[in-house]
């Protein structure tokens, strides 16, 4: 069932666009609000442990009809910290 | 007899709710079930023309609710099948003429007398939708494999959960297998991934649907067309039969369905 090579078929754009739209419809969380949340999270966690702000990833994951906020926050290693 | 009340809704208009109600009703009635259809779209009634019963309306839903006639008097008997009835919507009133509790009361009165009550919900998520889902034991959400219809269906599924009318079952209508195959239409699997609810029917796009509504003779009456067959299958699944889905879908999907999605 996979589409032919070359031009991207429209059904996959439809699915991707819907995936994003449905997350926002279901959670009331816009991409802009998600960015603010991310900044807050980085600020809070940084008060306790050193992290790599540019590597922080935060997204809404789907499990059936429920949403889960997933954050991936890499810590700075000790070795790296000493070089500072 | 204790009827099961099934409401068909969609959020978006024009996805095929009325056609579905007419056809599922005919399919159930052709299996010896006693069925009463209620057109919940007050002010924009259409189930009567799709069923071909428009010339026989004397009383309507609002007449019953406001006590101008008895329930029985508003039930139009479809002569093609021994046990199929329609309670038409009022055409000259609006949705506020009926309340959700009116619908519950009316269905409670009907329940002992039939096997199925099918309610055709209007589009939208306002009063008419609330009226249509209030008495429902089971809600079928209909969508087309198309972005706006899927988005609205998702919204409706969420509202049904919030109202404790879930879990809803999904009917995907107007699927064009050739377009799916070439990657230009959302597949059944795509829609199920997005909406994450149980599937109860896949209805292929079929010119016969329009021909049938031109004539006022629902497709499922003869059952030879693909769409008519799909509606017959939905009726059988409602009756608890385990019916394989028409072979429009991929092997994967079949596996998934038989793997026992709840």
Textual characterization of the structure:
The complex is a heterodimer of chains A (84) and B (262). Chain A has a domain at 30-83. Chain A contains 3 helices and 2 strands. Chain A has helices at 10-27, 31-46, 78-83; strands at 57-63, 66-72. Chain A has a two-stranded antiparallel sheet with strand order 1-2. In chain A, β1 (57-63) and β2 (66-72) form a beta hairpin. The radius of gyration of chain A is 18 Å and the shape is elongated. The termini of chain A are far apart. Chain B is α/β, with parallel strands linked by helices. Chain B has a single domain (4-258), classed as P-loop containing nucleotide triphosphate hydrolases (Rossmann fold), CATH 3.40.50.300. Helices cover 39% and strands 16% of the residues of chain B. Chain B has helices spanning 17-29, 47-51, 61-65, 71-74, 100-110, 127-133, 147-162, 177-181, 188-195, 208-215, 226-238, 251-258, and strands spanning 4-9, 35-39, 76-77, 84-87, 116-120, 138-143, 169-175, 198-204. Chain B has an 8-stranded mixed sheet, sandwiched between helices. In chain B, α1 crosses α11 (226-238). Chain B starts with a strand and ends with a helix. The mean pLDDT of chain B is 93. The chains are: A alpha+beta (84), B alpha/beta (262). The interface between A and B is medium-sized, with 20 and 24 residues.
